[in-house]
Amino acid sequence: MAEKRVLELALATPGVDAAGNAMRVPLVSAEHTAQEPELDSDHMLINIGPQHPATHGVLRLVVELDGEVVMRVIPHIGYLHSGFEKLGEYRHYNQIIPLTDRTDYLSAPANNIAFALAAERLMGIEITPRCTVLRVIACELSRIISHLVWAGTTAIDIGAFTVFLWMFQERERVYNLIEAWTGARLTTSLTRVGGLMADLPEGWTGRLREWCARFPKTLDEVDRMLLRNGIWLGRTQDVGVMTAAEATNWSLSGPMLRASGVAYDVRKDQPYLGYETYDFEVPVGEKGDVYDRYLVRMEEMRQSVRILLQALDRLPDGPINADDPRVILPPKQKAMSDMESMIHHFKQVMEGVPAPAGEVYFPVENPKGELGTYLVSDGTAKPVRWRIRPPSFLNLAALPRMAEGHLLSDLIAINASVDIVMGEIDR
Amino acid sequence: MSGAATANPSVAALRARFGAAIGRSAVVHGATLVHVARDRAHEAFAFLRDEPSERYDYLVDVTAVEYRDRELPLEVVYHLRSIPRNAFLRVKIALDRSGPFEVDSVVDLWQGANWLEREVWDMFGVRFAGHPDHRRILMWETYDEGHPLRKDFPLRGRFSRAEQVRRALGADLSAHYSMDELSIADAYGELPADMRQRLKGAAAPEGKGRSS
To answer: Tell me, what's the ipTM?
Structure first.
């Protein structure tokens, strides 16, 4: 029965009816498919990756195939394991921030912020209003650049090359903005505990406004190309379905969870950085297939632009760093000319900032899903435990559940739809 | 922010149901944490998931903490969330230094625990009884320096650089495959006998390093 269904799928071509709804047009008559000869039923075991463009990083999949149908998927991870969590136990809190860049390297500013927020809660530091709004801007820019990479690479996996070029062009424009702000493109190290590494350069907000005005047009163009495209619909609809109950039970998060119809967004349900004061919607899917994940992520980018414009409107003046000499370094001029400031600077850099004993789990809504930072301190300047709750690790864990029973080519589409980044999975 | 210092009512419900099996509880930085005895932890998790007043349907994270103070027990930490109630609870199981580092797996309750528990085994050497696929996950199957996130594991690894290179060059690459993947070859009798024996025996992998 299952084999018959797969044969029908394989021998059907997707199309759209007059109303624009997806439909399947059989290539051959039903009698013909019923007479398909019984094929040799040996299963085949194939290896995909770790060096394979369609695995989006150093992911290795061992796949058991019956013909072209995936019977089993065994993912192997760890090729990029760098022991960040171990390393963090030997670093001061501010020294950990460059490590967070390298976890989910497609949205480094958001990771920096996630860690800084957790450390600040642990130390009881209040950040300034300007810093809060600037962090919201950085978070939403990260969401957009991460989703752009997702859309581009997923489209290329499914065979739409143009989307990749358009998306990466926009991403490059955002990277120019981030580079102007932080001096780096990928590894931004944007935050410090209690503030930011730098304020915005002159004219930056104007450039961001210009970009915000132009960017949704690119999204509309991509939607026009994919939303009702027969090939796109056929490759994504009813592929890799996760129901709401399954998605919850498998601990999916972010767009993966919301595409399955669970309206959980950390920004709405456990607001941080004042997200409760912004006016934005959380898109939710219905079926939880690859197509819904596409719709959810595209809408999230539009909502991010809305948040960006609101943040730009309310961006207050003032300092970016908290007025807290425990964690904030004195100004460089003072450190070079004033004895006390120099001692202060020296002690802070050499000894670090002790955090009171305690523990904090701080979740943030990262582009990939819920990024949790679990920090345990014993009162010293280095954490006892720095745990990253990696969203794409948990999303990828559901890949066998989603892909088994589908065609091999659907496995590629499903894997792309998970939006994994191995730096975060392996840490 | 849920900064209120009131304890999550789930702790009282757990105490009413499990009595002495529920240990110390506290509110730390706005989040409630509760200690549960190891032998009744699985029951308590099932209660937290299924009881209509609790409904912790989402397992956020499973991890472990080892303190620098060698007197303190190693803790397995579960973060639970109820999406319908928007509630959050941290459950800890303290594992005494003398006893075996083993707890019951919760994969039967939350599928999301599968890889998380494998990672805790890989990094801390805590075994999860009843786990359907109890293998290392970030390190490779034949890794025998122990469990990297334990405090007695040196930052640069247990072996010297030269020893690591020597072992890498002499490694049997096929040993990185699990029995699961080689089951087809096994069914056709194509596996060398020694490999077959090793993989079958590796159903309960135990690091040769110092795993207490």
So the answer is: 0.83
